[in-house]
Each structure stands twice: as C-alpha cells, then as structure tokens.
Please model this.
Amino acid sequence: MLTKAYIPYKGYYCSPFSRWQGSMATENSIVLGANTAANWFKKKDWDPKMLDYLLVGITIGQHHIFYASPWAAAMMGATHIPGVTISQACTTSTTCIYNAALGVETGLYQTPFVLATDRCSNGPHTVWPNPLGPGGQVESENWLMDNFNLDPWGGTAMIQTAENVAKEAGITREECDALTLRRYEQYKMALENDREFQKRYMFPVEVRLSKKKTLLIEEDEGIYETTEEGLKALKPVIPEGVHTFGSQTHPADGNCGIV
Model:
C-alpha cells in the first residue's frame, strides 16, 4: 500500500518515559515535546526548515492545545510549516505515522515530521456549563481517569476491554505473565553495556526546575523489577480475569519524533 514513504536512517527518537507523577509531571507536554525535537534536530545538525508539515499527536489535553501544531512548529524552529493535531485515544501515535505516510504517498508533502507527546500526570479536568442540569449543575470530566474507567460507547473500562479480548482470543493468565516477563527480560537486555542498545534511539529531555536550573532526564523512570514468582503471586484486577497489576503498562510521560 505504501511504496514511497520511508523513515530515513536514524530519523527518529524517543525520549525516556517517566512514570506518572515523576520528573515530567508538571511540564506542558507540548512545550517539552517541541523543545526536545528542537534539541534533537540541533544535535543531528539537521535544519527544521527542511520540513514541510507537522503532525502533532496528543491524547491528553494541555494548556494551549488549541494551537498545538503551529505552536510546536514554531518552538521547533519551523515557523513556515502548516500542520494538524491528532488525538485518537491509545492509537494516537500510530494514526499520526499512518497519516504522515499517506501524505507522502499521495504527494501532499515531501518531508513531514511526526511529534507525539503526552503527559498522563496531573491530567486536566474539564467543566462544561449545563443550564438544563438540576440547579444548573455543571458537567465535568477528568480526562485521564474518567476515560480509563469508561468507554462511552462500549460502556466498560479499559481493563475490561482487555479481558474481553483475552476471552475472545483464548489468551490465558499464564500467557499474559509469560509475555510480561519476556518483555522485562528484553528491556534489561537493552540496558546492557551502559544502555548501548537503548542509546541508539533514546534522546534525553530537559526539564526546567527554575529559571536557572534544569534537570536532564536520560533514562526511563519508574520501571520496577519483574519476576516469575512475583507475577504468579498477584491477583487479577478483575475476579477470574487474566490481567494483574504486573501485566499492565503504567501511565507515563514522554514524547517521540519521526521524520
């Protein structure tokens, strides 16, 4: 289907990911993502002006998300390019990459950049006026937790969706635990020889602590040790289910970019 779109050699990066309420918890993810991209371009000695389109992927709203794409482009040093902001729940990043590839394939643009960024920490709370509510009671939403806990169409929480898929596909508790353990083993392999493999794709982020002080985050934060015995000892989140605390991904903050 896609014959013209490609990612240039090492034309991508991923920031470290910080477990929610960690070192990136108070950073505007749009600003942090754009600044990280700008630093990455500078480190590679690539001019952001070579870009002709920006796709910003962000699922959890941040201050000034209204202007996310042009704002991020400007902070990256690419004030000349148009762009779009895409939000698609858990498939935001893949949807951005797919749309970028389609744009190249159809000739809409030549060198787009995908910037995917999010912050699960300190998720926003939205309040809407509701004059028809009892006494004018407002409607409100916690962007992160409310949507973790309820799909408005499916009517269930994300964890229940996972259980439904496991049941339909015949996936067992033992298989979930085995996969979790294998992924942890692979992660540890990426840390060998002073993170030799991880450093091939991971790019550090700078978090501003004050006007004069910054913190450089070079490694993931919040990864906990996983063992076969530890996984077996955990109870399923939903009774009779196959997923435990250990086989779930923890919410985190971070960003990535792809040319």
